[in-house]
Structure formats: structure tokens, C-alpha cells
Amino acid sequence: MTVSNQLFTDLATRSFSRVQAKVSDLQAQISSGKNDPRASADQMRASQLSALKEERAALDHFTNAADQAASRISLSDQAIGDAAVIMRRLTELAIQAGNSTLPAEGIQGIRTEAQTLRTSLVEIANRTDALGQPLFAGYSAAPAFKETNDGVQYIGDGGRPSQRLSETLTMAVGLNGDELFMTAPLAGDRTSVFGIVDKLVDSMDTTMYEADDAIAVTGRGKLVLDADRTTKTLSMTINGPDGSVDIEAELVAGLPQPMVDVINAHSATTGVTAEVSEDGKDIILNAESEFELANFKRSDNPQRPIGSLQQLEFRGQPGKNPILLKAVTMSSDAMLLQVQAAVGHFAAMRAEVGAMGATVDAQKEALDFRQLRIDEAVAGLEDLDIAKAVTELQTLLLTRDASQQTYVKITQTSLFDFLR
């Protein structure tokens, strides 16, 4: 086979190009500090990198979800804390309202502040998260609460928003408004926090403030009961000259006869008798000395006066003006207990949200650890062994230079050099 100068030159040029390409690749890798990312360079390494990067992308998604969960829980915790501050202030106002010596202006000033605090409480209940979604509406995207003729009503659902924080962990990241604002425990039952606040505001109305839940008269008194067409159950305690008894009667269309019959059925115990007034609307009570009516309760839980009790003339003593009666649930002591129950309820709910926050924080730490391990594994596959690469580069450069010098020597030789 004849080797021409042209073929020799072509072969040498190709060889130099391959070496130069390797040199350029190594220089680029050394400059970036990364191994050749192409699968053709190392299929096994490329496969491992692909799997690790997919896992890292999933972890990034979970980390983002954990950040959103932490933000929502933090906003919920702040909202519940703000609501608790309002209820503690209402507790202070309830204590102030229990002072029977307050002038009308004083109780109205307290009532005005209570109404302002109620408005703030509704605003807190309708707060939203960083994405504009309501914090306490469950799965609903609409505001959680609205004002109605029957007070503040919850219009969300019973769900708890949740986030998936890992392949195996999906957890609630907040509370719904029903369990937070509508189910405060009170005397073995559940009641609305807004209902408690509304009752407190109503108890500070001038008329209610002047009413009493326990009134004593001597000898004769006229009991006037609030009358309407509905049937209600009224209970009270009679503390008579001979003893005390708790009684209960149904009032049908406000007619007094059922209550008269119940009072007379216990006259031997209390020493108090009753009769219907001449106009058939009221109840006349009689005793030999002082007696007291107290602990009024009515089945419709009234937030307005339920009637009045008036001292009538007795044995030469003049009568007095009637005194309004209110249910014991509207007394200052009862209102204080109800507001304190709401404060305790918010404390319990805040503790539950705090536990959610602790779980999310722990999960974020676990995700950070997993991300670190993956980053280390990726670095082990991607990062270049600089010392090894520099040595290889120096070898290639030396080989290239030697090859080029040899090529130059050979190409400078001609037939005349052999004929000498």
C-alpha cells in the first residue's frame, strides 16, 4: 500500500483534532468543576443522576408545600391569639359591668367597646392566608362567616385544609370555623363564641343592666311575665318564709294559670301562694313575710327582660315600682363564666394549632436532611476530580505537543535528504 504525503497529513490532522477536542473538553470540565453530563460519557452515572434529580424535584415540591403549611398554620395561630386577646378584654369588660353602681353613661361606654371588639372578632374569623384563601372556611373558598338576622353564622364546611408533606405524610394544616368559633364548651354543651359575645353586649343594654335575676318582696307582690303566642318553659326558685323550692311550668300564650297552679302546689313547702290578677294577665303572690324569686330560666334563652316583680301594698306599707326580671344566664356572673369559657376554648384550639406547627417544623427538618443527602450524592456524581483531570490534561497536552513536533520533523524530510 502506498502512503502519500496527502494521506499522511489527513491522518495526522484528524488525530490532532481528536486530541484537541479531548483537551477542550477537559478544560471546560475543569473550568466548571463538573463531570461530562452527557449519557454517552458514562451511562451508569447518567442514570443515577437522573434518579437523584427526580427525587430532589419531589423533595422541592414537598418543601414548598411545607413552607405553605407553616405559613398557614402561623397565620391561624396569630388569628387565634388575636381572638383570645379580644376575649380577655371582654372578660375585663364583663367584670366592670358587674359593678351595680355604674352610671348609665359608664355602662354604655363599656357596651360600645364590646360592640367594637365583636366587629374585630368577626374580621379575625374571616381572615385569609397568603394565597387569599380563608383560614377557617374548611374546604370552601368563600368567607367563613356572615352576619344574619340571627347573628354571625358559619357558612363554611366541616373540613380541615391539608397538605401532603412527604410520600407518606398528609396532615391537616388548620382548623375550620365551626370547631373554632361555634363549639365553645359551656356547662356540658357547645355554644357559639359570637353568641356569647352577643349576649354580653345585650346584657350591657341599659334596660338589661337595670334588670335583676333575684328580687325579694314582702307580703304581696305582682309577677308580670313577658307574654307572646309561643309556648315556653319557665323555671325559677322560690325562697319563701317556710322554705325553698325550684319550680317549672309551661306558659302557653303567656297565660299565668299554669304557673299559679305550680306555685300553689308547693305552698306548703314555701309559704307562698298565688292567684291570677283580676284582669287575668298577671300573678299575685302572697306570703306572711319576705320571699324571693330567683334563678329565672326560660327555654328560649331570652336576652331581654322576661317580666317584672312589683312590691304591692302590705299591712300599711306602700307599694313600690316594678323591677325588671332577667334570666340568670344574663347575669353578670353568668356572663363572666361564659366569656372565660370562650377564652379557655381558644387556648385549647391554639394548643392544637401549635402541635400542627411543631409537626410541620419536624417534617421540614427531615426534608432538609434528605435534600442534603441527595445533594451530597449528586455532588459525588457530578463534581469533577480536579487533580485527576489536571493530570490527564497535562498528559494530553504533552502527547499533543510531542505528536506535533514529530509530525513537523517527518514532513520536513524529502527524497534529497535520503540521497545525501
TrEMBL record:
Keyword Signal listed = no
Q: What is its main location?
A: other
Q: Could you tell me which residues belong to the region Disordered? A: 27-47
Q: Which residues form a coiled coil?
A: none
Alphabetical list of InterPro entries matching this protein: Flagell_FlgL, Flagellin, Flagellin_C, Flagellin_hook_IN_motif, Flagellin_N
> Taking every annotated instance into account, which residue ranges of this chain make up the domain Flagellin C-terminal?
339-419
Q: Which residues form the Flagellin N-terminal domain?
A: 5-140
Check the record and name the SUPFAM superfamilies matching this protein: Phase 1 flagellin
Keyword annotations of the record:
Bacterial flagellum, Cell projection, Cilium, Flagellum
Record bears the keyword Chaperone: no
Q: Where in the cell is it found?
A: Bacterial flagellum; Secreted
Which family does the record assign? Belongs to the bacterial flagellin family.
| NCBIfam families in alphabetical order | flagell_flgL
UniProt cross-references to PANTHER family, sorted A to Z: FLAGELLAR HOOK-ASSOCIATED PROTEIN 3 (PTHR42792:SF1), FLAGELLIN (PTHR42792)
Protein's UniProt name: Flagellar hook-associated protein 3
- Lineage in the entry? Bacteria, Pseudomonadati, Pseudomonadota, Alphaproteobacteria, Rhodobacterales
Per UniProt, what is the name of the gene that codes for the protein in this document?
Answer: flgL
